[in-house]
Amino acid sequence: MALAAATAETWGITGTTFLPAYVLIALTVGTAGICTRRALAEPGATTPVDDITSHPHDVAYLAGGNELAIWSALCAMHLRGTLTAADGTVRAIGRPDADADTLEKAIHATAGSPVGHRRLMFHRSVRPALATIEERLVAAGFLLSENRRRRIRRVGFWMLAVAVLGLLRVLADVAEARPVGLLVTALLLVTATGVMQIALAPRRTRRGNRALAALRERHRALAPEREPDWRSHGPAGAALGVGLFGTGALAVSAPGFARQIAPQVTGPDDAEGSGLAVSGGGDGGGGGGGNRGVSRHRLTDRSG
């Protein structure tokens, strides 16, 4: 009887049986989690993709968040002649155009005296305008709401439940002085997967990613390597170019203005070290590295 008790398997299941079963459970739960996360990242929406271009700063927010939306608005205001820049600060001049976007009007109201461009997004009058853009994008199905992102993160607890099962088995095996090396490895992988799923949630929906990719293809003429003339495209077109292709578009088409906002910049390849590098990519949105490989010549500011 004593010998039988000493040789009894943990939980009545041999290690060679439990480990494959545990891996199978982890793979099944992991696959279900991935499918669930993907489904949650694809909320239903009815707004046509083309409609988003009527608000070019919305496109910038979709591609790069608050900071890129600010850059998009500053670019449009520069072309409208309602904003000047010097030594890393911006200042509003004149009156905002009647057709100016709400974000531009908020920045104009804030920048009555010189203000650092990085501080604009934190100002009391600008934050509501950015929040309105976010609400529009969420309602249109291009961005995920915070509630939806929390639901996506909670899926990670499924894997943590599997990790708890593995931990209990490891502790039981250790108490019986049984080998646990392979099981510990599987446990660490399951735990890492669960933690990553809880920590990470996409900001854009899959629909938002597809929309950005389609818009970049459709408006390829605004890409930095095409060196677009922003005067011909107008403020809205220039803002759309920054939104779709990042601040590399600004460094190419309006280098003088770019240097005034970020004094260290001398060309598109120097944007990264100057505080000017804000990509239009991220979240799997189809790139945003259109400024790579752009020539460093023709730095005359064609935007005026």
Describe the protein in words.
The chain is mainly α. The protein has two domains: 13-41 and 148-199, no CATH class; 49-144 and 204-273, no CATH class. 56% of the residues lie in helices and 3% in strands. The protein has twelve helices and three strands, in the order αααββαβαααααααα. The protein has helices at 2-7, 15-40, 56-80, 102-110, 126-140, 146-154, 156-175, 181-199, 206-218, 230-245, 248-253, 255-261, and strands spanning 83-86, 89-92, 115-116. A three-stranded antiparallel sheet has the order 1-2-3. A hairpin with a 2-residue loop joins strand 1 (83-86) and strand 2. Helix 2 (15-40) packs parallel to helix 8 (181-199), helix 3 (56-80) packs antiparallel against helix 5 and helix 7 runs antiparallel to helix 8 (181-199).
* Rg, Å, rounded: 26 Å
Sketch the major β-sheet: 3 strands, antiparallel
Overall form: elongated
**Helix-strand category:** mainly alpha
The portion of residues assigned to helices is 55-70%
Number of domains: 2
Topology as a string of helices (H) and strands (E): HHHEEHEHHHHHHHH
| Spatial separation of the terminal alpha carbons | 94 Å
Using DSSP, what is the number of strands?
Answer: 3
How many H/I helices? 12
Percent range for β-strand residues: under 5%
Low-confidence regions? 1-6, 265-275, 281-304
- Chain-averaged pLDDT: 82
In spatial order, strands of the major sheet run 1-2-3
Keywords: Membrane, Transmembrane, Transmembrane helix
InterPro entries: Ser/Gly_Cys_C_dom (IPR026467)
Please give a quick description of this structure:
The chain has helices at residues 2-7, 15-40, 56-80, 102-110, 126-140, 146-154, 156-175, 181-199, 206-218, 230-245, 248-253, 255-261; strands spanning 83-86, 89-92, 115-116.
